[in-house]
Design goal:
Number of helices: 3
Order of helices and strands: EHEHHEEE
Strand content: 15-25%
CATH class: Alpha Beta
CATH superfamily: Beta-grasp domain
Largest sheet: 5 strands, mixed
Radius of gyration: 12 Å
Distance between the termini: 30 Å
Amino acid sequence: MLIRYFGAARAAAGTSEETLDGAGATVDDILALIGDRYAGTQSPSMEQVLRRSSFLLNEVALRDRGRVLAEQDILDVLPPFAGG
């Protein structure tokens, strides 16, 4: 699956996107993996960014973090943005 990072999430990850083997995992599983992978690498930490972020799954707002993911899914991590 493809994870795309925006704003502070991109800064915390040090990349704008990455591919993970997420088939069969839930969104919460993937978020925990990402939080652990980038723990303490930047300020704010990825863990802090994920707590404040909203998410899109295949370009649709995600409300159910227990949703099971498929290999072709795209998860966007959208931290709060300033401006308008």
